[in-house]
Write a structure and sequence with these properties.
alpha+beta, 11 helices, 5-stranded antiparallel beta sheet, 445 residues
Length: 445
């Protein structure tokens, strides 16, 4: 008996030892089949998104608010483009001229064209140009007295007030784009903190920050959805730009090396501060797909090239693994045969006493995209909700339910389920007609 127990225990141990390696091997196989498992980044925070849908295809601490340095300037640029004219001229204040390097070395009292300073802003990342542009737009929201005052004569406090007004425009645009964890204080991305007094009298400290996901979302807007997207792309894709003003000549060179690193590179902006580290946000187009990568805290000196290797790795991951799938494709689209007619209470019928029904049909394109970039191993979950019954009267085209196309618990498309027929409500006169009709039919028989 004892021998049997010992033999059984040994057999169990042997079986476990034989199975354990198989379990580990299965885990290894699963990880090997996940292409994202091989991604190794230097960046503390990173995101790869589909520019069209905004879907996050890869994230690493992607929702953590962090300093973003001069990647800020993509928002500065798009606000200026949407709010002003390229042909406008502006005056330089002493405050703008006092900005630290990197700078164009603007001088107080000089006059520049907005277009020229936008190239300075995006190609060379000049901090003084950012402030001059912000003051030019921001002063429109100040008192009439300050609006009529020459910007070159602004005091430092008046300049800061104009810049704060511009930052409000930046924050309003961020909220419009759904960026809840982004907060702008400066137009150039220099590290900044400010104290805000809440409506209840409490004060909070806010830092100039964003997240990798939200920075990528802002870039997606700049290149794809902004009414000024074409000009934004033209500026950020220019290799060299020269101009003259105030008796001086200037030459700007684009420092976005990614433009020549991968086929289809569209746009981008670098950034660096001691707090933020090296940052980058860039976009790439490939076979009708547009990807955006955002990197925050991607190394510190002497590792300025980390951002390029991280960007290429994430972009290549997107290009190799994500392809467009139409929600109406066979095997994904909702089968309208699943929709049954809905009974309509108190609805008129051809025969008194029968139940009224209305047929249903799908009204496509209520909201969302017609398709999505998906990996080969990802599935679209299709769910629908529809009312069990209706109350007469019912009009044709009345919405009674919805179809949802879901990926990773997020709804990316919603179609409406609507009624086909009108169904009138039973009333006294209709009942009288039905009774009379039955009476006449019976007597005629």
């Amino acid at each position: 008996m004892i021998r049997r127990k010992i033999a059984g225990a040994l057999a169990g141990i042997l079986f476990f030892c034989m199975q354990a390696p198989l379990f580990v091997a299965a885990q290894d196989i699963q990880e090997e089949n996940d292409p994202a498992a091989d991604i190794s980044l230097y960046a503390t925070s990173a995101a790869l998104i589909d520019a069209e849908s905004g879907r996050v295809l890869y994230g690493k601490n992607a929702d953590t608010p962090m300093a973003m340095a001069s990647t800020t300037k993509i928002m500065t640029c798009i606000i200026v483009l949407e709010s002003g004219s390229l042909e406008d001229t502006l005056q330089v204040s002493s405050y703008a001229a006092s900005m630290p390097k990197v700078k164009l070395y603007l001088k107080k009292g000089e006059t520049y064209q907005v277009k020229d300073l936008l190239y300075s802003l995006m190609l060379e990342s000049h901090n003084d140009s950012a402030v001059a542009l912000a003051e030019h737009i921001g002063k429109r929201y100040l008192s009439e007295e300050l609006q009529s005052k020459d910007t070159s004569e602004f005091t430092s406090e008046e300049s800061k007030t104009a810049v704060a007004a511009f930052a409000s425009l930046m924050n309003a645009k961020a909220r419009e784009l759904g960026c809840e964890n982004t907060y702008f204080i400066t137009p150039n991305g220099l590290d900044a903190t400010e104290t805000i007094t809440l409506s209840n009298g409490e004060t909070v400290e806010r830092e100039h920050c964003t997240t990798a996901c939200e920075l990528a979302r802002i870039m997606a807007y700049c290149i794809g959805k902004s009414p000024q997207k074409d000009m934004f792309l033209q500026i950020t894709r220019t290799a060299n730009y020269s101009f003259s003003a105030n008796g001086r000549s200037f030459s700007c060179t684009n420092h976005n090396a990614f433009l020549s690193m991968m086929e289809g590179a569209l746009s981008g902006k670098t950034g660096f501060t001691n707090k933020a580290g090296y940052c980058y946000v860039g976009a790439l187009s490939s076979q009708g797909r547009t990807f955006v990568v955002a990197l925050l805290a991607c190394g510190w000196p002497n590792n300025k090239n980390y951002k390029w290797s991280d960007t290429k790795e994430l972009m290549q991951y997107g290009v190799d693994n994500y392809f467009y799938r139409d929600f109406s494709a066979e095997g994904t689209a909702f089968d309208p045969g699943r929709l049954s007619p809905i009974p309509v209470e108190n609805g008129r019928t051809t025969v008194l006493g029968e139940t009224a029904y209305t047929e249903l049909q799908i009204q496509e394109g209520q909201s969302g995209a017609p398709g999505l970039l998906l990996r080969g191993d990802e599935n679209v979950q299709v769910e629908y909700q529809v009312k069990d019954n209706l109350q007469a009267p019912v009009e044709s085209g009345e919405e009674v339910g919805n179809i949802y196309y879901i990926v990773d618990d997020t709804i990316y498309r919603k179609d409406a389920i609507v009624t086909v027929q009108n169904v009138e409500k039973i009333d006294f006169s209709w009942c009288c007609r039905q009774i009379c009709q039955r009476f006449l039919q019976k007597n005629a028989g």
